[in-house]
Amino acid sequence: LWDQALIFAGFAFAYWLRYEADWPEPLDQIVVEVATQNWVSFGAFLPIIFPLMLLLALRFTTRGLYRSSTRLTALDQIAIIISSTLTGIALLIVFVFLYKPFYYSRLIFVFAGVAIIVLLSSWRLLVVGFRHWQWSRGIGRERVLVVGGTGLGQQVMSGIAASPGLGYTLVGYV
After folding, report:
1. Who's near 40: CB < 8 A, 6+ residues apart?
2. Which of these, 83, 114, 95, lies nearest to 52 by C-alpha position?
3. Tens-place pLDDT, residues 87-112
């Protein structure tokens, strides 16, 4: 649910950057003001924002972003966000320009892609950081019982004991 809200917010921010923002002197040559006849309201983008939200949710799900696994690092999550968002924006561009070739500004899709990636990655970093902060204080950890007290079992136990940020608490061994 947070991801969907951030995707919507990212597109709204991209709309503001493209249609409403006043760009400073060196950048105004790159981000040229939208001509009056090409200006569209934010509501005109809603029919493409909602399919993008659905497409990204499906991509994130199939790529494993929503699996509750401690093995999925923040870098892995950001890689999934970047690749899925770029794929989703690319498909959206193809779809939009096949059906309405001159209706939308092309630059808004670049802004939207960057904004969505930044917002979702920042959110994931906050969530992962908060989870590791909780684990380092003993909150929400998984309890682990190691089978085998020699060799590999001792290595596993020392690794768990030395890394409280992994989310595991060593209960003992047998």
Report:
1. 19, 103, 104
2. 95
3. 999 998 888 888 775 566 778 899 99
Residue 50: partners with Cβ closer than 8 Å, 6 or more residues away: none
List C-alpha distances in Å: 12 to 25, 34, 38, 79.
Answer: 24, 16, 18, 23
DSSP secondary structure letter of residue 144: E
- Residue 168: phi and psi, rounded to 5, are -120, 145
53 within 8 A of 10, measured Cβ to Cβ: no
State how far the Cα of 145 lies from the Cα of 60, in Å rounded to an integer.
32
pLDDT, mean over the chain: 83
Separation CA 77–CA 29 (nearest Å):
35
32 exposure class (CB count in 10 Å sphere: 0-12, 13-18, 19+)? exposed
